[in-house]
Amino acid sequence: METDLKLESSVFVGNQRYRAVLTGWHFNWTEVDKKHRDKKTISVPVAEVLAVEEGRVEILPKKLVEDKDKDFTVFYVKRSSSRGSSGLLWRLGRTQFRCPSRVLRDQWTKHLRAAVKTHSPLRPHKLLVFINPFGGKRKGRKIYHSVVAPLFELVGISSHVIVTERANQARDHLLKKDLTGFDGVVCVGGDGMFGEILHGLIGRTQQESGLCENDPAVTLQPCPLHIGIIPAGSTDCVCYATVGVIDPVTSALHIIIGDSQPLDVCSVHHASALVRYSVSLVGYGFYGDVLAESEKHRWMGPLRYDYSGAVVYLSNRSYKGIVQYLPADRPLSSPRDKTRCLSGCSVCSRSTERLFPHSPDSGTVYSAQYSQFSNVSEGQWVSVEGRFRCVSLTCMSSCCPKSPQGLSPSAHLADGTGDLILVWDTNPLGFLKFLYRHTSTQDQFDLPFVEVHRVKAVRFSLASGEEEDAYEELAGQGSVGMDEEDRGYVETVSRSSSQQQLAAIGTRRQMTKELKTPSPFLCGLCCSKSPPVSVWNCDGEILPFTEIVCRIHCQLVRLYARGIEDGTAAHNCSEGSDKCERRCILH
Ligand SMILES: CCCCCCCCCCCCC/C=C/[C@@H](O)[C@H](CO)NC(=O)CCCCCCCCCCCCCCC
Ligand SMILES: Nc1ncnc2c1ncn2[C@@H]1O[C@H](COP(=O)(O)OP(=O)(O)OP(=O)(O)O)[C@@H](O)[C@H]1O
Ligand SMILES: [Ca+2]
Q: Where is the DAGKc domain (predicted)?
C-alpha cells in the first residue's frame, strides 16, 4: 500500500488559479488571489471523493469527456440541509481542474485514486440490487435507472439487477443462490423490501455458520455483506433513521463510498421457533391494529396509515397482557437522557469495541462473550401486568417523516439494546397527547401513563386463562355488553415480580384506578368493547402469534450508511488539517 499520498501544486479551475493540496485525509483547493485576504478553501475528505477522471468530464445528460491532456475532474460528496428532515442531503459535487503539465495531471489522478483506496476500504465493486416495482408510489424502477444507475456507472460499480416479480423473491434468492463476488445487497423499496433482505442475509449467514435461529439464546453470526437502501416505499423508516433523509441520491452516495453503519436486530420467537426479525418496531395494541386496518386499504398507498391510524384511534382500544423484560446490562445511556444517536455516536462505538475487540474497523472477529444471553437467570426478568394502549419495542429511534424524532428519540442504532415503551390504558385525550408528541420535540415519555425501559429482551403473554377467554369473548362479540370493570376504569394496572426480583429491585406491585372520561365526540366509537387480543406489528408485518419472546442482537447487520449527520454540529475543518476524519459535517 502506498504511504506517501501527499501532493501540492498550482491548478486552474476555470480561469482562476488555485493551490491544490492532498494531505492525509483531505483534498483541498484554495483560491490564489492577491486582492482578497479571506482565501476560499474547499476541503473534501478523501473518503468522500467519488471518482477521479482524466479530462473535463460531465455525466449528465450523458457522459462527455473533453480536453483529456492536462485536465482532470473530481466528483465528490457535497452537502446541503434538507428542510423538514433530520439529516443532510448529499449531492454530486464536481470540479474540473487544469494542470500546468500532463505529467502533473497524471500525478494528481494517481495520488488521488490511491488515497481514496487507502481511506475508504469498504467501497463496493459488485452489488446485487433488488427492485420492488410495486413499493410506495411504484417508482422504484424509475428511481433506480434515472438516479442511482448513472452514479454507480460513474464510479465503476457493477450491479446485478433483479426486478422482483413476487413477494419474498429477494429473500429466497439470498437464502439459496450463489452470492460469491458480491460486496453488498441493495434494495430499492420500502421497509418491507428491506425486511426481505434482512431475513435473507441473516438466514443465509446462520445457515453457513451452522447456527440455529430458533433459539433466542444463541449468539447469531453478523452478516458479512452490507445492505444498501434506496428509499422507494411508504414509510422508509429504516432509511430515515439511519441516514436522516429519504433521498435516493444521498443513499446511493453512501453506498458508493462504502459507509458502514452497524444495526441492532431483534429476533422474535414463539414456542421455541423463530418468527421474524425486526429493526424498527415490534408493536402490540395501537400499532398492530393500525397495520391490520391498513391492510384493508392498500389501494390508498402511503395514506392508508394515516386513515387507519385515525380509525383505530377512534375505536379507543386497550388490551390486557403480561410484559416481561430483561433490563440492559451496564447501560451507557438511558431512553430519557435526551441525547440522540448521531453519526459517530460514542455509545454505539463503545459497543463496537466490546463486540469486536480485535478489529474495530472490519468487524470480523466477533466476541460472542459480550452478547452472552444463555446465562440469564429467571430472576433477572422484570414483570408487569395490566391493560395497555400499546406495547412497543424498538431497536432504534424509528424516526420517520411522520415522527422526525421517532418512537424513542434517544434509542441507539447499534448499542445492543432496544427501548420498551409501555403505554398503559388511559383516556382518549391522554392517548392523543401521547401520539401527538411524536410529531414534535415534546417528550412523549413525560406522561403518567407511559414508561420506557432500555432492555435486551422482552416476553409477552396473555394473562392465564386470557387466551381462552379471548376466543369466547370474540365469539360472543356484539351480544356481550360492557361489564362494570370495562366501562368504569381505563387504567387497571398490576405489576408483578418474580421472587428473586422482589429481593433485587423491591416490590413493583401497583394498582391504579382512574375514572374513564370519554370525550363526547368519540362516544359512538369509543364505547364499543375492545376485542380481547390485538396483533403484533413487526416492522410492518402482522405476526401470526400473540405470545412472543424478543431478543436484541447487537450489530447483527451493517448498512451502507453512517447514522444521522447533525447539520447544526458543523465545524470548521481548517485547510490541511489531518485531525478531521470523515465524520466532519460541513466545511
Ligand atoms: C395526532 C397525530 C398523531 C400522529 C402520530 C404519529 C406517530 C407516528 C409514529 C410512527 C412510528 C413508525 C414506526 C415504524 C414502523 C415501521 O417499521 C413499519 C414498516 O414500515 N411501519 C408501520 O408499521 C406503519 C405504522 C404507521 C403508524 C401510523 C400511525 C398514524 C397515527 C395517526 C393517528 C391519528 C389520530 C387522529 C385522531 C383524530
Ligand atoms: N414484485 C412484487 N410483487 C408483490 N409484492 C412484492 C414484490 N416485490 C416485493 N414485494 C413485497 O411488497 C412488500 C412491500 O414492499 P415495500 O416495502 O417495498 O413497499 P411499501 O409500499 O413501503 O410497503 P410497506 O409499507 O408494506 O413497507 C414487501 O413486504 C415485499 O415483500
Ligand atoms: Ca439499539
A: 122-272
